[in-house]
Amino acid sequence: MAGLHDCRVQPRVATPRPVWNPDVRQPMNFLAQWQDVPDTTVYDNGFKIQWEHFIRHVVDAAPYQWTLEKVPRASSSSRPRSRAGRSGAGSTFRRWRCEAAMSNAAPLSIRLPTDDRRLEVYTVRGASPFAATAPTRTFTRVAYSAAHVVADPAAATDPWLTAALDWDATIAYRQRLWSLGLGVAEAMDTAQRGMGLDWPTSLELIRRSLDAAHDHPGALIASGCGTDHLAFDASTSVDDVIHAYEEQMEAIESLGGKLIVMASRALARVASGAADYERVYDRILMQARQPVILHWLGDMFDPALAGYWGSADVDTAMATALGVIAANPGKVDGIKISLLDKDKEIAMRRRLPEGVRMYTGDDFNYAELIAGDGVGGATNRQHSDALLGIFDAIAPAASAALAALTAGDVDRFHAILAPTVPLSRHIFQTPTRFYKTGIVLLAWLNGHQSHFTMVGGQQSARSLAHFAGIFRLADGAGLLERPDLAVARMRHLLALHGIDP
Predict the structure, then answer these.
(1) Helix axes 274-287, 238-253, angle to 10 degrees
(2) What is the tens place of the pLDDT at every residue in 246-276?
(3) Contact 186, 224 (CB under 8 A)
(4) Residue 431 preceded by cis peptide, ω within 30
(5) Spatial distance between the Cα atoms of 11 and 114, rounded to a whole number of angstroms
(6) Burial of 327 (0-12, 13-18, 19+ CB in 10 A)
(7) CB 382 within 8 Å of CB 373
(8) Which residues contact 386 (CB under 8 A, 6 or more apart)?
(9) By the 8 A CB rule, do 380 and 357 touch?
(10) Minimal CA–CA distance to 205: which of 221, 220, 183, 229?
(11) CA–CA dist 325, 291 (Å, integer)
(12) E strands along 107-208, which residues?
């Protein structure tokens, strides 16, 4: 029985079978035998939700189906069909409700641009099937989402030169990731580190995120430590790189943060070979207060990192990185590699010391790498954990898939993630470094921020045809959380660029 505020249930096995006797007072308290159904979530105020629907209709032109004109229209259309007698009124009422439901469920369509400059009608498949609920068990994979930042479009600054963030919306997005059981990789390249987000703003972001994590027991967070504040020039030395790393290490660790030691553009520029990398990383790892995550970012993400670890040959570079890890036992939690080459990742995973995790950064092949192949002996060599930028965009699906994997349902894990892979490959297509634009677009379409502007004006880094591809693929993967809002906002975006959707 569902009431206005509570819901009670009496399972069949708990239903009493009393014997009625008019001469004996009934000893059973039937009302007390009903059980309260516990709340699994906090429900929002219904009046507030209705007003939000109406305001989105007024401000964003979102579809609003509960207008006054539809009531008499539905009533009048049903009158000719009504019949007298036992079934007349009832059948009319049922037909009216059925017609109203069909009207409310009418598919949403939008005209989207194609690569050959045409407009084609696209019909949205429906709302996301993924419930935004906390997992009931700890995942069997450690999964970090590199999180984007929300710019502040109202800040009176030069957006190409100064990073201004909407702190409330930025932190709210991290809280969403934690609520889905995902960790947060803070102030990484997904947050536009090195592409508009400077070190002082990054440090403030790390401070605020660490503070917010206290409200989420068990929340995972690790923060990017780099050398991006170093204004390197011809006189920059390896010692300068070490000092720059140490400065950021001290700042993050003094806040209680765990480090992700990011790849350094300055080191890639000044290092003369593998020995310089070994010297820098040995010095940094020796001082770390807790095990760190190393970060190997391929030059497809950042051309300035070409030849990292002292060699353009991936196998040679891999040997240097593995040597650094082996020389610093107990100092490395894991290594994230973003080479978009699953075979290279698996080869390196097989050679990691026992207990050191491989965090996949492969936004093309993450599903099979996380699932693993069961080969390699030690558990850490059989599968990859995750530190992925795409998890920001597919967070509900990622959470549901990891929950399925944790429950041992590998088929469901793959069924959930398979449709997200084409979306990810589209978002991360070359030039890969502009993938952040697609991440932020989806956050805006799904209502997690009120605008589509980015630090450094990076919202202009991709084409409208690219955005249309994201819209289609996100819908195909079940990742348009509120289709009516997504359609309304996509229409606004197209209209802003002179296209009638």
Answers:
(1) 30
(2) 999 999 999 999 999 999 999 999 999 999 9
(3) yes
(4) yes
(5) 54
(6) middle
(7) yes
(8) 141, 142, 143, 144, 359, 360, 366, 370
(9) yes
(10) 221
(11) 11
(12) 109-113, 119-123, 143-146, 183-186
282-287: long-range pairs with CB below 8 Å, 24+: 282/324, 282/327, 282/328, 283/242, 284/242, 284/245, 284/246, 284/249, 285/261, 285/324, 285/328, 285/331, 285/332, 286/328, 286/331, 287/246, 287/249
Structure tokens at 5: 């505020």
To the nearest 5 percent, what fractions of the chain are helix, strand and coil?
45, 10, 40
Question: What does the block give as tokens for 247?
Answer: 């400065």
pLDDT in tens, 19-66: 666 766 666 666 766 666 655 455 667 777 778 777 877 776 666 666
| 3 state SS of 474 | helix
Q: Residue 151 in contact with residue 454, Cβ under 8 Å?
A: yes
How much is the pTM? Answer: 0.79
Whole-angstrom distance, CA of residue 239 vs CA of residue 93: 80
Residue type, 336: K
Residues paired with 414 in a beta bridge: none
- Block residue for tokens 């558990």: 379
Spatial contact of 212 and 134, defined as CB atoms under 8 Å apart = no
